[in-house]
Every structure is written in C-alpha cells, then in structure tokens.
Design brief:
- This protein is an alpha/beta fold.
- The chain has one domain: Alpha-Beta Complex (2-enoyl-CoA Hydratase, Chain A, domain 1), CATH 3.90.226.
- Helices cover 50% and strands 14% of the residues.
- It is built from 11 helices and 9 strands.
- The strands form 2 sheets. Strands 1-2-3-4-6-9 form a 6-stranded mixed β-sheet, with helices on both faces.
- A hairpin with a 2-residue loop joins β1 and β2.
- The longest helix has 18 residues.
- The chain is globular, with a radius of gyration of 17 Å.
- The two termini are 32 Å apart.
Length: 252
C-alpha cells in the first residue's frame, strides 16, 4: 500500500488507517488510490464484514495534501482521478463503514464521515471544511448529503462558512454517534465493528441498502461537484489562496 495508508485486518474487520503523522495525515493521490483499492478489495472479500477508518493519536486527517492541490491547479488535473476513484468507492461500498475520529478532521476528513454508518469521536475532535477559503467548493457529495443530515443552515455553516464543528455539536447534529475518551476510542470502535460483524451478514447488508437508498444521485453529485471543483482550481480566487499559503509557509 501507499506510504501514509496502513491497511490492516482484525478478523472480519478491515482497518483503513491514515498514517502520515509528520504531515498531519494529509492525503496524497497515491493514498487515495490505495484507499480506493482497499475498499474495492473489501467488497470482493466475503470474509470482510465492516471497514473502519482510523487516524493517528490526536489527528484524523488534514484532508487533501496542499501540494497536490497546487499541482492540480497548475497542471489542470482537477480533483484528480485517484481522489475520484476513492469518492466513488465510498458511495458504492456495500459493507458498513465506521470511523474513529481523534482530533482534527478537515476537508475530505470531515466529508467522508457523511458516508459512514457509525462514527465515534473524542473531545478533541474538530470538523472543518475550508473549501471557500481556498476558493473551492464542496466534494464527496457533501453538498447533497450534509443538508440531508444536518439541515441547510448547519450544512451551510460547515461547508460554505467554513466554521468548525466540535465533537459534541457533531453528536447533536447527527454526524457522530458518541464522544469517547481518546484512549478508549480505537478499542470501542473495533469492539462495535466486531459486534456488527457477528450479526447475520445478509440481513445487515440488506438493511443498510434500504437505509442508504439509491446511490445514483450521490454518484451524480460527486461528478457534478468534481467538474465545478476543477473549474474553481483554475480560478483567480483559488490561485490567490494557494499563493498566500505558499508565501505563509515560506515565512514560517
């Protein structure tokens, strides 16, 4: 697997771990490709019942690697095919998805939770999507899923205003199931995953399909967002935001 992603197995539970702590688990194209392949492999493996996303202690993920963003803006690659493969895999994955979130979950780190069936967080968890601050727009079908789950006003606050959503607020909003002490997070999410894996498999999968509904609209929104995202990457607003980021990084 790609540097920065660890794919592990705990019996019937597949663990997808962001493991690039020196870069706050920022996700590169190679990492997106590894995640997409792992989800595809899980769907083809009858022994896997649940997939679980985890990060590092104190940091889930900073979202897309800013260097990849800048290259995409410069070279005109848009959101990038590896990232798109991962987003499509999220939308179509046929096994339950869980996440244990400790610390910041920015950008795709926040929006991927909209595709999860069960999420635990810690008191230091913060969700943030700085899309408009970078001159960009939402992704991962979040413009469709967030209003459904959070309501328009909360979704607007998160996706457009870029305001942070803390762990307890995320529970109230329905995005997180419970807040757990950091040292209990991983054991609890894996315990819950095994609890689900022990249930009659076909009944779980059929019930999940009913709850999720038709994925066609989600896939269509992913593609529509990607088209607009690519346009925004070429915009003067995005170019200015990236230039400011580079300047700040050099000065720090």
């Amino acid at each position: 697997m790609a540097h920065g992603i660890r794919i592990e197995r705990d019996g019937p539970v597949q663990i997808l771990r962001f493991d690039r702590p020196d870069k706050k688990n920022a996700i590169t194209g190679a990492m997106y490709a590894a995640l997409a392949e792992a989800l595809k492999a899980a769907s083809a493996d009858d022994a896997i019942a649940v997939s679980v996303f985890l990060g590092s202690p104190g940091f889930f993920t900073a979202g897309n690697d800013i260097g990849d963003f800048i290259r995409s803006a410069t070279e005109g690659h848009g959101i990038g095919e590896p990232a798109l493969r991962f987003l499509r895999a999220l939308a179509t994955h046929d096994r339950p998805l869980m996440a244990g979130v400790d610390g910041p979950a920015f950008g795709i780190g926040a929006t991927l939770l909209l595709h999860c069936d069960y999420v635990l967080a810690t008191p230091r968890t913060v969700l943030k999507t700085p899309f408009t601050d970078l001159g960009l727009t939402p992704e991962a079908a979040s413009s469709l899923l967030a209003p459904r789950l959070l309501g328009h006003s909360r979704a607007f606050e998160l996706l457009v205003m870029g305001r942070e959503l803390g762990a307890e607020a995320a529970v109230t909003a329905g995005l997180v199931n419970a807040v757990i002490d950091p040292d209990r997070l991983e054991p609890r999410i894996l315990e819950t995953a095994h609890e689900l894996a022990a249930k009659p498999r076909d009944a779980v999968l059929a019930s999940r399909r009913l709850l999720k509904g038709d994925t066609a609209a989600i896939l269509a929104r992913i593609e529509a967002e990607a088209t607009l995202f690519a346009e925004r990457l070429q915009s003067s607003e995005a170019q200015a935001a990236f230039a400011a980021f580079i300047s700040k990084s050099k000065g720090s």
